[in-house]
Amino acid sequence: MNSLENTDRFGKFFLIITSIIVAFGVVMVYSSSYMFSKEVYGTSLHFFSRQIFFALFGIGLAFIVSKTKYQFWYKFSFHLNIVIGFLLILTFIPGLGVIAKGANRWINIGVGSLQPGEFAKYSTLMLSLFFFESYEKLDLKNRLKFAANIFFVLLLLILQPDFGTFFICALGIGFTCFISNFNRKYFYILASVGTVLSGLILIAQPYRVKRLMAFLDPWANPRGSGFQVIQSWIGFANGGFFGKGIGNSLEKLFFLPEAHNDFIFSVIGEEFGFLGVIAFVGLFMAFTHFGFRLALSLKDVIARKMVTSIVFIICVQACLNMGVVLGLLPTKGLNLPFVSYGGSSLLSNLIAIGVIFSCVSRQHTDNAQKPFFSQQ
């Protein structure tokens, strides 16, 4: 089986699995939110209808992006990251920025809100890949310019504050550095410095220390900082082996905060049980497997690294979210990709899938050109 056939095969599997996860996410948003939606908005369809719109709109954007040349997103990643940085600045402007839970993470766009941090995950990923791949070719001035662009966006995420998104961006930067041609000695130095700085940022704010203490012993404050994790555990316990059945979760009935968002995995555990959780985790494992196999089937080195990086960042966030919901990691405020409610998250992830298939399209284009050039 040749490379193009492998690309087609892995691409189809990857697309099918992604579609299943997105569709399942829409269903779970309705299941986990209909009571809360009815109580707050007077209709059980508020979150469900919006999630369907985001999914359809995101699929349309992904299709359009898949028809573009991936080199566009790669070469203009510097400018793209500047745009995202500008949007992050807008979150701090009174009247335009939306403050929720003490954080400036959203922009009021009239019909809803936009969270630029969700798009920053991919803009910093693209830019860092370009930066590390081109590092040896850049002069000192351009190296400083690229580094400043990346770190400025990271700084804005810290100031919002949005440590969860900052952490994902930092992991993405580290991963692109690792798979690039960047000097290994400099990589280890950068990784060490980044780890120390991330640790200092983590303990710099009292609320983050409080979350860390709640993670270590949630029962020390079961009605306060440990409440969410304990309710999540109760949800998984209620689900047992086979689950209570879709729509029958009790924890979503105003017991579990963020049931349709960050902690939707707990509702999945309660309604589908241990078997459902294993099957759901298996979907993301398959997503990772076929995503990486798809990347390895690509001949273009940059396309291969771009697909690998995108799949990595999505799967790492999924793992972190599941770890938080299971009480294995401190709470970070990260949603479950493709599944949690949220337009910005779903749109950014689907656009990223579009970029993956723009890389796949390049493989087909190159293959189609070979016979022509071979005749010259």
UniProtKB/TrEMBL annotation:
It is found in: Cell membrane. It holds the Pfam family FTSW_RODA_SPOVE. Pathway: Cell wall biogenesis; peptidoglycan biosynthesis. Keywords: Cell cycle, Cell division, Cell membrane, Cell shape, Cell wall biogenesis/degradation, Glycosyltransferase, Membrane, Peptidoglycan synthesis, Transferase, Transmembrane, Transmembrane helix. The keyword Glycosyltransferase applies. It is a multi-pass membrane protein. NCBIfam families: ftsW. It comes from Halobacteriovorax vibrionivorans. It is an enzyme of class 2 (transferase). Its EC number is 2.4.99.28. The chain crosses the membrane at residues 12-36, 48-66, 78-99, 147-174, 186-204, 263-287, 307-329, 341-360. The keyword Cell membrane applies. This is Probable peptidoglycan glycosyltransferase FtsW. InterPro entries: Cell_cycle_FtsW-rel_CS (IPR018365), FtsW (IPR013437), FtsW/RodA (IPR001182). Belongs to the SEDS family. FtsW subfamily. The lineage of its organism: Bacteria, Pseudomonadati, Bdellovibrionota, Bacteriovoracia, Bacteriovoracales. Its main location: membrane.
